[in-house]
Design goal:
Blueprint (H helix, E strand, L loop, with lengths): L1 H24 L7 E2 L4 E3 L3 E3 L1 E2 L5 E5 L13 E5 L21 E5 L2 E2 L4 E3 L32 H39 L31 E11 L2 E4 L3 E7 L9 E5 L2 H5 L9 H9 L22 E6 L4 E10 L10 E6 L20 E4 L11 H8 L10 E8 L2 E10 L3 H7 L8 E10 L5 E9 L3 H6 L5 H7 L2 H14 L10 E5 L15 E2 L8 H5 L5 H7 L7 H7 L2 H16 L4 H15 L3 H8 L5 H30 L4 E11 L5 E3 L4 E5 L2 E3 L20 H4 L3 E6 L4 E7 L3 E8 L11 E4 L5 E9 L2
Parallel strand pairs: 2-12, 13-18, 24-32
Antiparallel strand pairs: 1-4, 3-9, 5-8, 5-10, 6-7, 10-11, 10-12, 13-14, 14-15, 15-16, 16-17, 17-19, 18-19, 20-21, 20-22, 22-23, 24-25, 24-28, 26-27, 26-29, 29-31, 30-32
Helix pairs in contact: 5-14, 9-13, 13-16, 14-16
């Protein structure tokens, strides 16, 4: 028996040894070794590539994948000038084949590669049109020198920019007059013309240039090829990107994206250009131009080219796929880029090292409606809303380089999809997530209409609930806390691009698990794309509640209006909204976050503006920041007035709360850390670490301690109930309440309810525990 055991053991050892040898024989040929890691270097250097095996190394310097069959070079075509839609319906279209070409080539490694500062080289990909413009205006100009005359040229060019805006507005007005005249004469609607009644002024040339173009480095991609017994074996591609200069000149952190240029910019299929799809649409016959999303731009083609990304701040790399993202913003010169990490990648610390992304998709967003103004609004306000009863997208601005060329600022964001929700809330099955969004769908006439669609799951249950007039049925089906916080936030923001757009909600349909609260099947909301603040004009007076009433028939307002018809839920909503205006939306808190964004982005904005020509100037950008600050300072007062008018409330009053410690002789002293007070939905007297993160929140609240600290002041509406509950900390005990409206009957009760009509000051009196 022992002999059989030994033989069996020997067979297993032999089997494992043979399997190991077999795996070694089939092991993947390793990548070439690079003498330098990716990043910024102060001086030019020689990059050496080597390999432990007898191999041939092939490399590229243009982002293309090394190809031993491309040693002589190939080209792809692109266009920088696109024909515009006709001025009159039926007018013939002449699409000129005015193509330009770029070459991409593979090299056999035979000597070290010299890495130098390439900024004096002519711009390559930053001189490719990424829109359907007839004459692109966003190509970066050569960098002017510090010559004193250039300052005056710059002042002149800023004035010309303002004058040309007036020219553009005048041409638009005159074309509208022509269109209305033709409609009056013929009775038919004509497309808006593009007749240049007044020509724009050209920019003044600078006196002297610095011999630098758009900042650029060198992407090096290398592959080893080995020939054994008549067979060819290729290694995976190794990618490193090098810059000569100082990384401190750019906003940190950085992302390096490397991908074949033809996949991104080629006329025949590049995802960042209008390309052949636009020309084919134009040639098919166009009556008038309705909306950019009705044009089948090539960036809507669904392709997801392979790319390599590097996060130098974290020494992380990944093989990914790319896709453009967004609606109207797809037509901007700088695209929002959706990144699909490969399953084989290690987690990527896109946002922070503590909560890295594994396989979830992320977005490098161009800032949407805020693209030409501040490049920060959506990210900053999403951060401010963290810790409320809905999901938010994380935010981190990056300096992006594509194939070594400076691309500018893009904001890293989570992508809301079933993967995100499943990973974030630890849901048992992604297949059971039902995720609804507002999107464009063609109607029976082929015209695009905004309707709710299922991004994952089915729309049927929500459609049925959207027609329900049974308040209790709605309350049972939704997370009431989520609705209160979501609608309060949208009303405060005055989001003009909602709810007929950017509306998101979800639920989990699988079996309920008591240990996972969000498996209860209730609908919850997600905060998405909130850069159209203050009616898209940062107007603190924008009345989102009036807009909600005016658009009462919109199905995305249905739950709100149905519940507001019930006095109980109306009172709860108003109270929660007032709580948020006193804390989350406190003017100083919002202003502080905007100032932090300004300070963080200010160094990078001049380079971003030079790259894209937008925002118009640094002065314009700073003015936009100040406008956002003005919104933050004035909005709460305006919002209270709008709530008062909409719900017919009494005027606000000021509530003051304090905590004191009383000794045996009846003397008192401040004791602001000795207790917490529950005021309506707020817990006062706690720090950020003590805040409870709601189950539906995707991140905890930040920077709240100052706005929850005792003593505390806030505003509420006269006659509305306020509820208070005192909880002494260890070593203290509650004695009684003092102040306006406190009667002997309720003075010693921990929990009290009041209905103040005027300014009210209350004090919780504590004693030391015996």
């Amino acid at each position: 028996m022992a002999q059989n055991f030994v033989l069996t053991a020997l067979r297993w050892v032999l089997f494992l040894l043979l399997a190991f040898v077999g795996n070694m024989a089939q092991a993947e040929l390793e990548q070439p070794h690079f003498s330098h890691s990716s990043g910024f270097y102060a001086q030019p250097f020689e990059l050496q590539l080597d390999h432990p095996d007898d191999v041939t190394i092939y490399y590229t310097l243009d982002g293309s994948e090394p190809d031993p069959d491309n040693l002589n070079g190939r080209t792809y075509r692109y266009k920088n000038n696109y024909q515009q839609p006709p001025l009159v319906a039926g007018q013939p279209i002449d699409i000129a084949p005015d193509f330009l070409h770029h070459e991409y080539q593979t090299w056999r490694y035979e000597a070290p590669i010299f890495i130098d500062d390439r900024s004096a080289d002519a711009d390559r990909i930053s001189a490719i049109a990424t829109t359907d413009a007839q004459i692109p205006t966003y190509f970066p100009k050569p960098e002017p020198s510090d010559h004193w005359l250039n300052r005056y040229v710059d002042y002149g060019n800023q004035l010309i920019v303002q004058l040309n805006r007036g020219v553009s507005n005048l041409n638009r007005l005159l074309n509208k007059v022509v269109r209305n005249y033709k409609r009056w004469r013929s009775g038919e609607s004509q497309p808006t013309g593009q007749i240049p009644f007044v020509r724009p002024l050209p920019q003044l040339p600078y006196w002297e240039y610095a011999h630098r173009n758009n900042y650029k480095g060198t992407p090096v991609r290398a592959m080893a090829v080995k020939h054994v017994d008549g067979q060819t074996e290729q290694s995976p591609i190794a990618t490193h990107t090098y810059f000569i200069g100082d990384s401190e000149d750019f906003l940190a952190p950085h992302i390096f994206i490397t991908a074949p240029e033809q996949d991104l910019y080629a006329y025949d299929g590049g995802i960042f250009v209008a390309g052949k799809g636009y020309d084919d649409w134009l040639a098919a016959g166009v009556e008038k131009r309705e909306h950019s999303r009705q044009i089948p731009y090539e960036w809507n083609n669904g392709k997801t080219p392979q790319a390599h990304i590097e996060l130098p701040h974290a020494s992380k790399t990944a093989e990914v796929r790319l896709k453009t993202h967004g609606g109207t913003s797809r037509g901007y010169p700088s695209k929002s880029i959706r990144i699909y990490p490969g399953k084989q990648n290690s987690p990527l610390p896109i946002f922070d090292d503590e909560n890295p992304i594994l396989n979830n998709r992320i977005i490098l967003r161009n800032a949407g409606n805020d693209w030409s103004q501040g490049v920060f609004l959506d990210g900053v306000f999403q951060q401010l809303l963290q810790g409320l009863h809905f999901s938010t997208q994380r935010y981190r601005p990056y300096t992006v380089f594509i194939n070594g060329e400076y691309h500018g600022i893009l904001n890293a964001r989570d992508r809301f999809d079933s993967r995100f929700l499943t990973a974030l809330f630890d849901l048992p099955s992604r297949k059971e997530v039902e995720l609804i969004k507002t999107g464009l769908q063609p109607d029976e006439n082929g015209d695009l209409q905004r309707v709710n669609t299922a991004q994952h799951g089915s729309i049927d249950a929500l459609e049925a609930l959207n027609h329900s007039t049974d308040t209790e049925q709605i309350i049972q089906a939704i997370d009431w806390d989520s609705l209160q916080d979501y609608f309060s936030s949208q009303f405060y923001l005055g989001n003009n691009d909602w709810p007929d757009n950017n509306y998101r909600l979800w639920r989990y349909l699988g079996s309920a698990d008591d240990d996972i609260p969000l498996t209860d099947g209730k609908w919850r909301w997600l905060m998405y794309d909130i850069d159209a603040v203050g009616g898209a004009e940062l107007d603190p007076k924008f009345n989102a509640l009036h807009r909600a009433q005016r658009k009462k028939d919109s199905q995305n307002y249905h739950f709100f209006h149905q519940l507001m018809a019930d006095p109980t839920y109306q009172q709860q909503f108003i109270t929660r909204f007032a709580d948020l205006l006193n804390t989350t939306f406190a003017p100083d808190r919002v202003s502080s976050s905007i100032r932090q964004a300004e300070e963080h982005l200010a160094k990078e904005m001049p380079q971003h503006i030079r790259r894209w020509g937008t925002p118009r100037t640094m002065d314009y950008w700073h003015d936009h920041v100040e406008k956002a600050i003005q919104f933050a300072q004035q909005r709460p007062a305006e919002q209270r007035q709008q709530l008062q008018d909409y719900f017919d409330l009494s005027a606000p009053y000021e509530l003051s709360l304090d905590v004191v410690l009383e000794d045996k002789k009846g003397r008192t002293q401040p004791a602001h850390k000795a207790a917490t007070i529950q005021l309506n939905t707020l817990t006062l007297g706690i720090n950020d670490h003590e805040l409870t993160q709601p189950a539906a929140a995707s991140a905890p609240a930040i920077d709240m301690e100052k706005y929850l600290a005792l003593p505390w002041q806030g505003e509420y509406f006269a006659g509305m109930p306020i509820r208070l509950d005192i909880t002494p900390r260890e070593g203290y005990q509650f004695s009684h309440w003092e102040g306006d409206g406190i009667t002997a009957e309720i003075a010693q009760q921990h929990h009290i309810e009041l209905h103040p009509e005027k300014n009210t000051a209350l004090t919780a009196v504590l004693k030391k525990s015996t």
